[in-house]
Amino acid sequence: MNNMDPRCGRRAVIPVPYVKVTLPLRPEQLPRDVLPREGAPAVPIELVIEVAAEGGKRPLTMRAEVNSRNYRRAVKAIDEFSGNATVLIQGRLTGNYELLDAGLSVQPKVPAAPSTTAPTTSASPGPPPSAAPPSAASTAPALSPPPGAAPRSPTAANPVADGPAVGVVDPGSKGRTR
Fold it and tell me: Which of 42, 47, 52, 74 has a CA 20 to 30 Å removed from the CA of 23?
């Protein structure tokens, strides 16, 4: 086995059984005509995902089976958010381009945070935003870190965004949300 790659010197091959994949899609890319009628038993829906290749090369084609109940929940979530969402297909991609344990989830798009600069004119009377009463969290006494420890910011304990994810489906949970 040749471990030399002329571009970078050495090369290591690391065999793995699969790669965890999360593929974002626009809501309009999820076809609705593949759903069975309402009330029908849950059946697998085969999705064929093509990744476009540049220069007229053959596209990469992956296959995934998604439970129709999971698919229907994703479509309902898209409708609930009026299409202002991102659809995620998640699963384990194998060497033969199959996405195993595939599941769909829908994440609403969050509008950008408003600017922190003060407006030049105010349409409503009242105290300026800087004169807002302090919250209970800001009036609580600060805990000092143990001796020798670096101080931590309030968000360091929870680097994940506040609030639960909407419609996240664990692929191994057979469609149950977590």
Answer: 42
pTM for the full model?
0.57
pLDDT in tens, 29-47: 999 999 988 888 889 999 9
Where helices occur in the chain by DSSP H, the ranges are 68-80, 136-139
Q: List, in order, residues 6 or more apart from 62 with CB less than 8 Å away.
A: 48, 49, 50, 51, 93, 97, 98, 99
Which tokens sit at 56? 């007229």
Residues 6+ apart with CB under 8 A from 97: 60, 61, 62, 63
Nearest to 99 by CA among 47, 51, 31, 59: 47
Phi, psi torsion values for 149, nearest 5 degrees: -90, 150
